[in-house]
Amino acid sequence: MQIQLDSASPLSIQADALITFAFEKDDPLEGPLAELDRATSGRLRELVAAHELTGKWLETVLLHYPAGLQAKRLLIVGAGKQEKFGNGELRRLAGAALRHLKSRGAKRIAFLLREPRQDAGSAQIVAEGLLLAELDLDKYKTEKKNGAAVDHAAILGVAGDAARAIERARIIAESENWARDISNEPSNRLTPSVLAERAAEMARESGLEIAIYDEKQIEAMKMGALLGVARGSAEPPRLIVVTYNPPQPKPGAPVLGLVGKAITFDTGGISIKPSKGMDRMKYDMCGGVTMLAVMRAIARLKPSLKVIAVVPSTENMPGGRAVKPGDILVSMSGKTIEVLNTDAEGRLILSDGLYYARQLGATHLVDAATLTGAIVVALSNVNVGVFGSQDDFTRRFLDVARAAGEKMWHMPVDDEYRDMMKSPIADLQNISSGDGGGASTAAAFLKEFTGELPWIHLDIAGTAWLDDPKPWMPKGASGVTIRSLVDFTETL
Ligand code: BES
Ligand code: MN
Ligand code: ZN
Predict the structure, then answer these.
(1) Is 349 in the pocket of ligand 1 (CB under 6 A)?
(2) Rounded CA gap, 295 and 309, in Å?
(3) Active site residue 273
(4) I need a labelling partner for 332 at 20 to 30 A (CA). Which of 86, 131, 171, 252 fits?
(5) What is the DSSP string of 64-132?
(6) What percent of the chain stands above pLDDT 90?
């Protein structure tokens, strides 16, 4: 889809559909809506009187061949209460509009921004929302049912120059779609080695440095925790390391290490999961894919610090050689881990990933993982769980996430949680000896491998994919945290 700014008036723009939005108010006809009402000789006023146009969140009003307009359709989307309308809402609204019109065969659309959202930032959000809504899940359908793509979108009503903002939107949204597309792949089509190939292809296209380590090399690196998880599978593991070197490095600038869990399928291993809903565990590599997508975006946005992504990838399978409850693994850091539950595998592979990122010179760490069912209990599929070792660093990230329109919630990692992860016979055990707090005890386990570095852990188990479609997005991988991480990288 091509996206362009256009200075045409909403009345004269030629398009299959003109989109704008109304706030929920006694009289939603203000600003451009009043103008559109006059142009259509009071049609909108009639809809308001009939309570069909109220501005309620994601209400859609579609007029065909509105007299007085050049556009073939006018779509007014409800924006809800104005006080609650932030970037997340605008992005979703734009996406919902695109999906509504795409299924009706529109090819050329125009989105009219209105007060109080007429700056370059708003144009960026709209462009992101449109691009993210394009992705569909019909790749493996032999008959494609979803309407053909919208090829052209004009954004109207922007004050000032927003060309760069739209370029930025494209970089971020295409990186999110890249991640969502890979994350939606089933495990038979996306093994650790295939993921590594996809990462290599991305790195080549983006001008990033990449190293891929196979089983033998991982063994030579003494990553006993990653290897322990990989033992049960016939598919060999991979360690993917992608590096971005800034064109103008600043002396003394931080080096950011991004570590992501990429379990291409999590059966639970010998501590096997119940079969109901197990298919969802094909999404257990979303954290790793997230970090690769962030690299894809920053290769194009070129921030002035070095960034290293470390993505350990394996399947978690039962098998004749699989790790068993009670086994002890020696992690790369030298710390020993008693594996009491083979289904707590994410923290094992991340322990080696985090330690390795430190060895590569990271001064700050962020990890993302579909780590615990406990975070789903705590926050459902609404908020990302955010844990951190230094409050000011964690809060800076949370502020960026809020501005980016992604919901996240600060969770605790007190020392008491770490005490619950102490093993009587090894340095650590991989599940807690206490009750409850499963997301925090998992985070406390990870923290043991981060040294003294500022570190943030994102538990995306509840938010990395949607079980049900939304008006702005099909079911499947959501791409959550990518845009916050891209913005955050730039603030460092
Ligand atoms: N990949 C799962 C976590 C998960 C659960 C992700 C639900 C998405 C939805 C992880 O590897 C896991 O199995 N965690 C266990 C840990 C437990 C054994 C301590 C869990 O949360 O049940
Ligand atoms: Mn598991
Ligand atoms: Zn898992």
Answers:
(1) no
(2) 7
(3) yes
(4) 252
(5) ES-TT-SSSEEEEEE---GGG--HHHHHHHHHHHHHHHHTTT--EEEEE--TT--SHHHHHHHHHHHHH
(6) 96
Cα–Cα distance, 131 to 112 (Å, whole number) = 16
Amino acid at 4: Q
- Per-residue tokens: 252: 């003394």
Domains and CATH numbers, the chain: 2-161 (3.40.220.10), 185-491 (3.40.630.10)
- pLDDT single digits (tens) 448-479: 999 999 999 999 999 999 999 999 999 999 99
The alpha carbon of 197 and the centre of ligand 2 are apart by a number of angstroms equal to 24
The beta strand positions in 115-234, using DSSP E, are: 152-156, 209-213
Q: Could you give the CA distance from residue 262 to residue 295 in angstroms, rounded to a whole number?
A: 15
DSSP 221: T
Does residue 426 contact residue 337 with C-beta atoms inside 8 Å?
Answer: yes
- According to the model, what pLDDT value does residue 146 have? 60
Three-state SS at 201: helix
Residues 35-83 have pLDDT tens digits of 999 999 999 999 999 999 999 999 999 999 999 999 999 999 999 999 9
Measured in Å, residue 271 CA sits from the centre of ligand 2 at 9
- Of 273, 324, 396, 402, the active-site residue reads 273
Distance of CA 329 to the CA centre of its chain: 31
Residue 398 C-alpha to ligand 1 middle, in angstroms? 24
Please name the helix (run of DSSP H) or strand (run of DSSP E) that holds residue 329, with its range, or none: strand 328-330
Ligand 1 mutation pick, 314, 343, 428, 431, max ligand atoms within 8 A of CB: 343
The dihedral through the CA atoms of 33, 58, 464, 443 has a sign that is positive
pLDDT tens digits along 238-273:
999 999 999 988 888 999 999 999 999 999 999 999
Type of residue numbered 166: I
